[in-house]
Structure formats: C-alpha cells, structure tokens
Design brief:
mainly alpha, globular
Amino acid sequence: MKTTIQVRALGLKIKNGILHPKDAEHEGSLPSENRDACKPSAQASQEQSDSGIRPQADPADSTAGVTGRSPDGDASASSPRSPLKRMTELLPGIGMTLIIALVAKALAQLPGAGMIGQLVLALLLGIVWRAALPVPAPASAGLAFANKKLLRWGIILLGMRLSLADVVQAGPAVFAAAAVNIVFAIAVVYAIARRMKVGPELAMLAACGTGICGAAAIAGVSPQIKASDDDTAVGVTVIALLGTLFTVAYTLAYPLLGFTPAEYGLFSGATLHEIAHVVAAAAPGGSASVDAALVSKLTRVALLAPVALALGVWAARRERRSSAGGAGAAGQPDGRPRRAGVPVPWFIGGFLLAAGLNTLGIVPAGAAETAVQGAYLLIAMAMAGLGLNVNLAVFRRHGVRAAGAVLLGSVLLSALGIAEVYILRMVG
C-alpha cells in the first residue's frame, strides 16, 4: 500500500520512501540546505566539498522572514513576524560578533598589536573561535546580519574619517600618485593571482586590498563583485599577514632609503595596505612623516567609491558573458542572453555623503570621531562574523596562492613608490 508522510516543519513529504518537496510554492520557501537535500546538484556538491562551509542566507532578504509564512502554508502563520521575534533571532549572533569586536579593540591597544589593527584581530579571533569551539546554530541569523547589514553601515560611517579638503590641498601630484598606484596594484595583483589559478573574485579582492585600503576596501568591494564569504575572509587574512610583514620591512628599511620624513610618509601612505599599517610604518619618521602618510593614504581611500562602481561594471560584464555562454539556459525566453544590470551600491553613496558632511564641517569634530569609532566597531563585528565561518582547510587551499600574488604585487608596488618619490623630488 502506498503511503505518504507529510513533514510539515520542513515543507517535505515522504512518498514510497522517497523525500519530495510538497509543491513548487513550498519548495521555493524552503531553506537552501533543505531544498538542496531534496535536489542535489553536481555544482552544489562540488562547492560544499571545496569550502566545507554551508552558505548562509541573508536573513534580511529571506522570503520566509518577509512573508512570515510557514512551510506548510497554514493561514495562521501568514502574518509577518514581529520585530521582537526578529530581534530575538538576531541577538545570539550579533552578541557573539560584538564580544569578539570589543576584545579585538582591547587587544589592538597592546604594544605591537596596533600594526595589525582591530579589524584583522576580529577576523583572526573569529577564526580561532570557529577552530576551537562549535558555533551555536541559533547564532547563524545574527552572523549573516553582521556580515552584510552591519558591514554596509560601517562603510558609510567610515566616510566621516575622510576630508576631501585634505585630498585637494595635497595637490595633484599626490592624487596622481594614488591613482596610478591603485590602477597598477589592482592590475598587477589580479593578473598574477589569475596566473596562479586563484579564482576571479578572490583575485580581485586581494588586488583591491593591496591597492586601496586593506580590509575596508575588501569589505566595500566584496558586495559589488558578489564574492563569497570564504573569498572575503581569505582576502582579508592574506592582506593582514602581508601588510604586517611589509610594515616591519618598511620600518627596518627607513634608515637605508635616504628619504626625508615627508617623503618617507608619502611613500608609506602610497604603498602600504591598511591605515594601521601606514601609521605604524611612518611612526619612525615622526609627526611630519605620519601626517604625510595619512594624507597620501586617505587620498587612496577617497578613490574607493569610484573603484567600487567600476568593479560593479566589471562584474556585470562578467555576468553577461557567463549568461551568453549558457546557450540560452540562463537567458531570456527568446534565447537572447539576459542583460546584467550594473549595481549602484547605496552604501558607497552613503560613504561619499558622510565624507562630504565631514568636509563641510557640518558634523562636529567630536561627533565625527565617534562615528569613525562606531564604523570600526561595526566593520570589526562583520569581520568577526566572517571569521566564524572560515574553514582553515579552505584558507590552506586558496590562501597560499593568493598570498603569493599579493607578496609579489606588493614588492612591485613598493618599487613603484620609491620611483615616484624620486620623480617628485626632481619635479618639485
């Protein structure tokens, strides 16, 4: 006799010993892991075997969260979830990332830890937690919220650190050097990484982290190119390790370069990865060196927004080519390839707006500083969430090659920076 067993909690049924979705509507509302269990694909199996990490859906974009419908379609569950229930679901994960971010901030105050920085320390602490202790299942929604929503708000508030007036006052030479270095670093590191068989998304993240502003640049660019959490975490870790190595190397090389303090600051700000790296490396040259380094570095930070927009165009073109290569399977009903839109990130617009408010002096200095501290806290929470999802096997498999590309690209960028100092000395 044929039997059918309804599994209402999962929106599934067992018919003749085979697990099926109840219907097409319910299948669309299933969590990805349950749906994949019903319909395994070669691609999904390969991705899971490569990463060892189950992707997490953005809770804010979850269909179930918006509609509030239960999988079995009961009318009693058709109303949206209450904000209190939603907050209760997010609290465990957000609390974990907040604790890690605060510990990272405290550790960053210790001697020698400043060159690593709060963001990188938060990522590393998350990785250690994941390796040593299990991550509670109820924390998954809050971790995904931190990875996406808190990250974007942190990028917006980070604009309060930038004064466009300082960039203008630095002169066209500093701006030109920053622009050349960004284009050079992105092109060279990306080309080397791809040559070393690094995936395109990770290669671009490593290139932007090298050329612009380390972890913050990776965080800003990642949504634009639709990079995975794995690639983002690996990119941040690689930049952190190599940036720290080059910071120590710059400090040791300073007496041998023959630069004035201002020239050494310009060189450090134009070539090092993180703002923390720049400040630490420029410190031996004194206040004049640190000031020049920050202006040079913040000029590169100012170019984050246009670079992110340009990479959105790059990612959209890659998507169009991929759709065209799908022989209509991923295209429109008439067989023509679907046109991929160019994403315009609202948070990059917010970043520029915050920078404009700070430039005009509308926001008091104390409030702007508080906003910057809040920005680093939010981004550190996002980095902690990424770290809690990192599989060390993935880093060993993909991070080593990416690190090799960043190492070689950073050496070439440093050589370009030295040449720029001598050029500016001759023309200035």
